[in-house]
Structure formats: C-alpha cells, structure tokens
Amino acid sequence: MTARSPLLPAARTCLAAALAGGVLLLAGCSADRLEEDAPAEDPGVEVDGGAIGPDVRVNDDVGLQQVQLEYPLDGVYAVGEDARLFMAVTNTGGEPVTLTDISGPDFSGVRVETAEGQGLPLTVDADDNLYVGAEDPPNVTLLDLGRELRSSQSVPVTFTFAEAGEVTIDVPVSAERQDPTPPFDFPDDDPDQDPTGDDAAIPSPAG
C-alpha cells in the first residue's frame, strides 16, 4: 500500500535540484521542458554543504523526487559497501505504474525489501505516491559499490518502468547530518500543492 501526500513544487518541472555543481539528468525530459543545470560534479570532488537529490520526470505522469543515497555513518562509502537509496515515486496518471528494474555500472545489484517480502517490482497506484526509504517499506539498497563515495559525490542509476520507460540519474550521497536518518520528514501543511488531493505532505530532505 502506498503513502499519499502532496508534491513539492519542484515535482511540477523537469529540473534537477542540486547545490553547487548540480546534477546531470541523462534522460527523462523533452528538450522543451528541461532546464539545463551545470555539468555533473566530478566524482572525485566533494561539494561543500552536500547536495539535494534531484527531481526528475520519467513521462507526463511519472516522476522521481529527491533521489539520494543515505549519508554514510563514517562519512565515506568504501568500495564494496552497500548504500541505502531514498526517493519518492509519483504517479499522477489514471493507471498504476510498475518499477521493474534499478541498475547501474557502479554497484553490483539492489536489495529491495517490501511489506510482502523481497524483490522488484514496486507498484505505484494510480494518482498516488510511493516513498522508498521512509518510515515503512519498501526499502532499496545499492549493493557492493564499485568505488568510494562521499557526500555530494554521485553514481548513475537507471530506473526502468514497465509503462513509462527508463531514466538514468546521477544520484548523490546526501549531506552530512548529526544522525544518519532517512532524509525525509513529514510536514503536514500546504495541502494545496497535492495534485492527488490528499492532506498529508511529501517528505523533504532533513538538514
């Protein structure tokens, strides 16, 4: 069962939200709808203050919001470690959509934990949102990282939907915080921003 809540204003555009160098979107928006960001940050350089996960449209109905990796306990992911993924999947269409695959060149696979068990696919109901890494399942972890990662450094991750196609995003490690908790909170104001008509609110990064 998916959680329902309003969408951030950023979800209504095809912008890649990022601090400093920005995050490069490799797919998912038509040229007339995409505002170009600065080039993707060099993987070997850390951006002061961290980065905000990008918001990306897969098609007119399906989007990914605040896609990011959890800040590591000791400040760095070593080669071979696993990294937990956080994001919201939004579906403003009239039919369910199914996330069938998550892949990339810098990790060996993913572990997906749901309320029903393990593994993909993940389904987002019509006119609904699905929060990955929030208070309840599903949880997604990138396994066996192929290189070291620090805050604001990123890895390309491809998300494939059966109905909407695929999009590849440079997913950054979230900014440092006192406690390595999921980068979402749940404010309950501004319900007018929700195209699904619910009164809860979308998670936003905790700073």
From TrEMBL:
Region entry Disordered, spans: 170-207
Keyword flag Signal: yes
Alphabetical list of PROSITE patterns matching this protein: PROKAR_LIPOPROTEIN (PS51257)
Keywords: Signal
Compositionally biased intervals (Acidic residues): 186-197
Signal peptide from the UniProt entry: 1-20
Domain of life: Bacteria
Name listed for the protein in its UniProt record: Copper(I)-binding protein
Organism, as annotated: Geodermatophilus poikilotrophus
